[in-house]
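[Discussion] Sanity-checking designs against the backbone

I'm trying to build intuition for which residues belong where. Below is a structure token string of 844 positions. I'd appreciate it if someone posts a full sequence so I can compare it with mine line by line.
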């Protein structure tokens, strides 16, 4: 996990949270800072009216992409507007706090030509324009879409327990209030926030929403303004929220976040995903676990990796012009994790700027940067310029028809898309019209166009690999056929057209994005409203080899009423097909390991490597080659330090400690597992824990809980103790647990990653927790929180450092370095002691 930092330099040996104030994400000039109470006209607003020529897209970017623009931008969503710019929307927050503004912007909006350089473009509401029904509520988690010729922006209204909607003719409004989308109550048993709208291939719109342990989905009405269908629960778990759905290769993928979003340096947020063959589920993770199962899940898309970013989560997805997907999400910077409350408020806020990172699809599952986690150094930027084509902002410059004036094609303008082109055939003519770019794009290509057809018999199209009318691949929105049609010509010979039906009620008079990709001889086409991976039509076909070549891109038309905008093509992205290498444990270190194959209780005999804190624990015995330890009604939590802990020294530097745990807890708050322990207020733990499901009518969650406790770095001095969980993969009665420790000497930090397995062979990796180095860690075991269960530990094995860097991955088989099976003891043993179960108390 060694790396270089993109954060400002600091004195060697200081932990990153001790970086000076100069390392804050955004630096502004206080003398020019507007106050919150000024009129909207005086606030930083949309730069749209005075557009400067677009700068060349940068080759690299460094997270956060909102640095220098806003201080924070939680729960981001992004869309590419019909004007060719990208727009991002964030939760209500004090985004200009370092500029001297002590209030909040209500759903702030940013604008960019390249997805990485952003300017402030306004806010959805000002205090003066917020509708009366929203007074007294903070507005969260915007979700943006384009449909029926306007932009739909959904947002959470936690104070009212519902979701609101505004619509606007452009990405920055002006916005029209459409009121509440959800009924009250909504029919979902938990918080009615973090909504995400999705439209299926048959045109059916859905809304996903929920938080505080459950995500629900229901159908919407035809104009997408109200939920009207039956409510279905599709995911539950500890603090499951932030759902976002896309369709890919026949699957529906539900992205979500779990654990805590907003506790500064103690935020355990990470993004996970499940998939289904239906938009209403059931969704399963990459281990086959149903997302409705009462426990933690795998399918980690991105989590903290020990670098700068804490609690990465609440994502959306955006696709660049090459076809590469990008995860859009927020993260908390370790050097400045907190914001002061907004004016007049007491709500503690975490600084959550917007990050973007490459989203890879490997073996059918999404993962950020092949599993290496958030980037914090210069990284290859999205592709946001075309090799051929353009936006028609400068008219027909750069376009041709057979080398002459583009007969039949004229330019027009509108408020949203600005310049676009329309086609009018010559009287009596039935020949198609082609407006061809002067530039060319390579054979492996992605092309896009925004198309609409305003006359009943017309068709609007996009061509790629275009050399002339007899050599091209054409994609049509054909109104007469109510279909997506692909047409291929090679040396004047036409291949059979292929048709895919468009949904009933398809809105022909408004813009739709048609994207087409040629990879090898495979053509893939999608029709969407807004490029947000929810196609209303899809088609794939195999092309003749002779049809695959470099060529121009063009707008195409048949009959009257065809209009086009944002027509372009560029080199198709090269997909990442393998995950980053995952380190396997190094050589077994016998001096730091114990097979528990003696009858003596560890820590009770002379010369034992083990020792107890508040022990030996009552009832602990050695049975059948295992340490058998009943849970106790004790805690190791903040100031309540009453639990026994069994400890032994750990090696210096890097190592992995592993145990096999047989544990069948029966009530809330029981837990058992591994710890790396410095003292009662500084430790890391990985346990099988039982926690209550919020609003679950007494249901219990079995979770792989990866926690830490330590001082909160932003207190002065940093002495206040805090505690936070992160959640790993699914649990089982027999669970293998690993904590991998890395000593980051450059930044004086302990970095610890958790992983778990249900068979001792295939491991699910979680994120990384860090703590500043103050003292030595010791290897330990715990079994506590509530009586009534027994933890059987088969062994504790410690391994030396591996040769490769540990990176997140989906379940991956690994053999222990010492060559023995990791589960050398019987996997299922009956507990030696089975105390009577009594009611437990909720986990703190």
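Best answer:
Here's mine. Compare freely.
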């Amino acid at each position: 996990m060694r790396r270089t930092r993109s954060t400002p330099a600091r004195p060697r040996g200081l932990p990153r949270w001790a970086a000076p104030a100069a390392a804050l994400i955004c630096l502004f000039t206080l003398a020019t800072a507007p106050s919150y109470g000024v009129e909207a006209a005086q606030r930083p607003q949309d730069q749209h009216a005075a557009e400067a020529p677009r700068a060349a897209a940068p080759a690299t970017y460094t997270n956060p992409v909102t640095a220098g623009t806003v201080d924070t931008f939680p729960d981001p969503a992004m869309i590419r507007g019909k004007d060719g710019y990208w727009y991002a929307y964030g939760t209500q927050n004090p985004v200009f706090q370092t500029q001297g503004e002590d209030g909040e912007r209500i759903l702030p909006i940013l604008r960019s030509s390249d997805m990485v350089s952003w300017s402030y473009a306004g806010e959805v509401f000002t205090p003066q324009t917020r509708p009366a029904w929203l007074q007294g509520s903070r507005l969260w988690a915007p979700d943006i879409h384009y449909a029926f010729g306007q932009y739909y922006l959904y947002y959470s209204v936690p104070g009212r327990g519902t979701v609101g909607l505004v619509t606007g003719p452009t990405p920055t409004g002006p916005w029209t209030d459409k009121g509440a989308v959800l009924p009250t109550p909504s029919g979902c048993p938990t918080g009615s926030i973090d909504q995400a709208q999705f439209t299926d291939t048959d045109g059916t719109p859905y809304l996903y929403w929920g938080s505080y342990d459950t995500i629900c989905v229901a159908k919407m009405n035809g104009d997408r303004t109200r939920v009207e269908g039956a409510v279905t629960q599709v995911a539950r778990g500890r603090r499951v929220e932030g759902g976002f759905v896309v369709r890919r290769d026949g699957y529906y993928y539900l992205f979500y976040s779990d654990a805590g979003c907003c506790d500064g340096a103690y935020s355990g947020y990470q993004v996970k995903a499940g998939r289904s063959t239906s938009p209403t589920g059931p969704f399963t993770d990459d281990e086959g676990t149903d997302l409705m199962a009462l426990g933690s899940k795998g399918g980690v898309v991105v989590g903290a990796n020990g670098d700068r970013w804490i609690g990465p989560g609440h994502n959306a997805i955006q696709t660049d012009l090459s076809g590469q997907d990008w995860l859009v999400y927020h993260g908390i910077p370790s050097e400045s994790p907190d914001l002061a409350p907004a004016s007049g408020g007491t709500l503690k806020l975490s600084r959550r700027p917007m990050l973007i990172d490459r989203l890879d699809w490997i073996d059918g599952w999404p993962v950020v940067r092949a599993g290496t986690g958030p980037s914090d150094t210069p990284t290859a930027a999205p592709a946001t310029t075309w090799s051929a084509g353009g936006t028609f902002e400068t008219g027909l410059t750069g376009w041709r028809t057979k080398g002459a004036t583009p007969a039949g094609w004229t330019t027009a303008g509108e408020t949203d898309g600005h310049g676009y082109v329309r086609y009018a055939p010559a009287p009596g003519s039935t020949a198609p019209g082609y407006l061809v770019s002067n530039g060319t794009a390579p054979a492996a290509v992605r092309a896009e166009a925004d198309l609409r057809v305003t006359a009943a018999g017309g068709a609007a199209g996009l061509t790629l690999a275009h050399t002339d009318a007899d050599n091209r691949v054409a994609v049509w929105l054909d109104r007469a056929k109510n279909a997506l049609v692909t047409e291929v010509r090679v040396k004047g010979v036409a291949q059979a057209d292929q048709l895919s039906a468009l949904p009933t009620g398809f809105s022909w008079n408004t813009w739709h994005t048609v994207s087409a990709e040629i990879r090898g001889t495979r053509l893939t086409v999608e029709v969407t409203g807004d490029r947000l991976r929810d196609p209303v039509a899809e088609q794939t076909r195999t092309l003749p080899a002779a049809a695959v070549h470099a060529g121009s891109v063009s707008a195409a038309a048949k009959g009257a009423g065809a209009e086009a905008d944002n027509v372009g093509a560029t080199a198709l992205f090269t997909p990442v097909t393998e995950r980053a290498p995952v380190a396997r444990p190094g050589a077994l270190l016998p001096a730091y390991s114990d097979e528990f194959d003696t009858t003596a209780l560890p820590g009770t005999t002379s010369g034992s490597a083990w020792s107890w804190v508040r022990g030996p624990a009552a009832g602990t015995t050695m049975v059948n080659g295992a340490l058998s330890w009943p849970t106790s009604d004790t805690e190791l939590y903040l100031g309540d330090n009453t639990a026994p802990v069994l400890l032994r020294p750990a090696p210096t530097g890097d190592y992995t400690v592993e145990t096999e745990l047989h544990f069948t807890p029966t009530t809330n708050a029981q837990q058992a597992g591994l710890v790396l322990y410095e003292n009662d207020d500084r430790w890391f733990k990985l346990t099988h824990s039982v926690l209550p499901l919020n609003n679950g009518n007494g249901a219990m969650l079995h979770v792989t809980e990866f926690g830490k406790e330590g001082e909160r770095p932003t207190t002065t001095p940093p002495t206040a103790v805090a505690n936070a969980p992160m959640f790993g993969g699914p649990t089982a009665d027999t669970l293998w647990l690993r904590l991998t420790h890395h000593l980051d000497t450059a930044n004086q930090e302990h970095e610890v990653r958790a992983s778990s397995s249900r068979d001792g062979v295939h491991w699910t990796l979680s994120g990384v927790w860090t703590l500043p180095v103050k003292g030595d860690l010791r290897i330990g075991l715990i079994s506590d929180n509530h009586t009534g269960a027994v933890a059987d530990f088969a062994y504790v094995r410690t391994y030396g450092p591996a040769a490769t860097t540990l990176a997140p991955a989906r379940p991956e088989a690994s053999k222990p370095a010492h060559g023995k099976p990791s589960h050398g003891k019987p996997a299922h043993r009956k507990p030696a002691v089975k105390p009577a179960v009594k009611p437990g108390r909720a986990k703190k």
